[in-house]
Amino acid sequence: MRKVEVVDEDLNLFYWLLTISKIDPDSNITIADTMKQVNQRKRTVEHSDTEGLVVDTRILFDPFRQIIVVYNQRGTVNNTELKKFFCKLIDVRGLIFEIIMNQEAYDRIDKLDQINQLTYRVASVNNFKNYRDENRGEYGDLKLMEKFHGRELLLTMKLNDTSKTSIIEKFRNLFSDDSLEVKSAKVDGINDGIEDNIDLIRNKLKYSGLITYNSELDDESIYKFLEQAFENKYLYLKNIFEIEKFETMS
């Protein structure tokens, strides 16, 4: 775990770079021999129940604005595991993750003169059992799915008059729910007489770039990439999120 100072006007800020190593004893470990024919190269390595493939999840954490930047690769820790880790790290009982949308999504929603419909498709591995005793009206659709033992819900809501704030809040609730997998989320409306279809999945805040490394893709090379991503989006994040430091971290 590494602490990195941030120069931001007169503020004494910093962020953390860290790696979470996860052992996966259930997945097969496959290696290949380049000296053999293509169809004979691969073989599975046997291992005991206590051994497994190691997958590293590299993270940048800003404790002041409570932002987590994750290097996305196959096999990284899921949101539930990430929440457990950060609950212990910052000594809190629970956390809620929110997906950050990019500026384009906010701008396009804000420019809509009329919102016609919301469409989303969500899946639940436990047949929406988390909503069995849910009394809040905004979760009525998910509670109905639990009643019928459904596993996936595709819902389209035709709208007459809905505030843009409530739309964003609805999708934030969906994205932050660990028991749901949001497979699609769209807003359809009219902007200056022209139909606009906004895909919120594609408009999540992301950064793409080149990773510079020597012989292997190690922690140092990924950390540099995470720092590039954070620096690239810093002004945008700074305008959205206020500073609220976790005092338990040092």
Provide a short characterization of the protein structure.
With 250 residues, the protein is an alpha+beta fold. It has 5 helices and 10 strands, in the order ββββββααβαβαββα.
Name the features:
globular, SepS12B protein
Tell me what the structure shows.
The protein has 250 residues and is of the alpha+beta class. It folds into two domains: 2-98 and 205-240, no CATH class; 103-199, no CATH class. The protein has five helices and ten strands; from the N terminus they run E-E-E-E-E-E-H-H-E-H-E-H-E-E-H. The strands form three sheets. The chain has a four-stranded antiparallel β-sheet, with helices on one face. A four-stranded antiparallel β-sheet has the order 8-7-9-10, with helices on one face. The longest helix has 22 residues, at 219-240. This is SepS12B protein.
Query: What is the tally of beta strands?
Result: 10
**Number of distinct helices:** 5
Uncertain stretches of 5 or more adjacent residues: none
Shape: globular
The Cα radius of gyration reads: 22 Å
Assembly type of the chains comes to: single chain
Number of domains: 2
Distance between the termini: 12 Å
Chain-wise SSE layout:
Blueprint: E1 2-8, E2 11-24, E3 29-32, E4 42-45, E5 53-62, E6 67-70, H1 79-90, H2 103-110, E7 114-123, H3 140-147, E8 152-158, H4 164-175, E9 181-191, E10 194-199, H5 219-240
Antiparallel strand pairs: 1-2, 2-5, 3-4, 5-6, 7-8, 7-9, 9-10
